[in-house]
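Hi R.,

Here are the chain sequences for the assembly we discussed:
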Amino acid sequence: MDGREMKGIGRWKSAPVFLGIASFAAILLVWESVVRLGWVNPFFVSQPSAIAASLSRSAQSGELWRNLAVSLREFAIGYGASVVVGFLAGALAGRFRTVEYALDPFLWFLYSAPLIAFYPIFVIWFGLGIPTVIAIAFLLSVTQITFSTLSGIQNVNPLLLRAAKSFGATERDVLWKVVLPASVPMVIAGLRLGIGRALMGVVVGELFGATAGLGYSISYYGSLLKTTDMLASLVVIVVLGVLCTQALSALEARFDSWRTGPDS
Amino acid sequence: MFRRISSSNYRLLTSTLTLMAFLTIWEIAPRVGMADATYTSQPSRVITAGLEILSTGGFGRDVYVSLSEFTIGFALAIGIGVPLGLLLGRFLVLRYLLDPPIMAIYATPHLALLPVIVVWLGIGMQSKIAVAFVGGVIPILVNTMAGVRGVERSWVVAARSFCAGEWDVFVKVILPASLLSVVMGIRLGVSRAVLGVVVAEMYQSQTGVGSEIMRYGSEFRTDYLLFYVLLVSLFGFAATSAVRALEKTLWTGGK
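And here is the predicted structure of the full complex:
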């Protein structure tokens, strides 16, 4: 469908990239100029040049790197643990239906609960700051990865399973040579969605129960009504989110050729 | 088949048994001194706390405030997300222009905007409505866009060859064909909007379910905290299930 639509605008392959950059540039330009012209109060929206200056200031003082390091560490540990636990739980639940049914009520509770509400209890159990944030990031992300792994394993093409079995494959062969490879695309999709949720957990955890990190610094500057510094931290989070999602999308595209199903 | 055909009775039995086992351990552990009930609470205490909360007058007001924030914010998300998604799905240049900023917002944890929104809109209901809106609008917009793009090209061509105008194609072909993706976007948006309202209320607020959660949390009244958390989870689960049921009806009802 896209290919045909393209005719209207010419066979110019770089059009999306060009227009995308143009749109970002336009947003920055309008933002900067409405503030300069005095149409909008910079107290509320700041301005791109001031945010850039604030970023370079905090990069030079080391504050930016300290906050980034804290947030990244929390993210890496929370997300890493959720990948291991979520994949194992999802694989077990996909293989044994008793496990699936047993986990079901807890997974649904965790998935729909506002987990951040538990942060005062987490602070008591694990301590203020990094451990609490890791716990929240882990819990937000683990359900997503479990669900995706589970449905990836459940939706393996039954024809493949029958073919393997009729050639004398054992349960173990089926698991390692058919089920796991066939569920890779769904697992990767789960990993991508999990990244978003873990990042959310880090930021929200830091808004409430932390003393350092990017989320904390947004909240800190927000309470001082320092809009420029607050938006500078937000920009870093946006960039982080885009980079993580892009990396996983690239991985997803690479594994896309593994996709198996009745339609392929 | 890799797995035996599932029987819904077996499912119900297993889920109920593990849930009962969990509740029993939770109830007994503090009684035999294996856990501190102040921090872990107990099912019986949560029920007592729930009954107490329900009998006080403040409960109705808190639920009313949170529900209206959610309803207004989410209605705005649908009202703006769907038409904008339809436009972006239909007009390529518009999509190329707006796609990068939308994707950047999509990849950002939307609750990071919370302190910014509080600075802009204050600590009243407006900021919660805005957070619910931001949470809900992005999945709705993205899925509507994808739905329009996924409409079978030959249907559009067929309609055109029977002299349908641009407007006819839009209303009679594209709109019905992308309805399912729109509803799916709404389903994904619901839980994000619910979470948005609660977290925004926890962050800065005087009333609402989230502010109660915050108050009981800082007082370590875990029983009361858990009652509200269960309430929110139940609401999120029920709302998501309702939209999922609508989705099922659309799948089967549309032949």
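Chain A touches chain B through 72 residues (CB under 8 Å). Chain A has two domains: 2-35, 49-258.

Let me know if anything looks off.

Best,
T.
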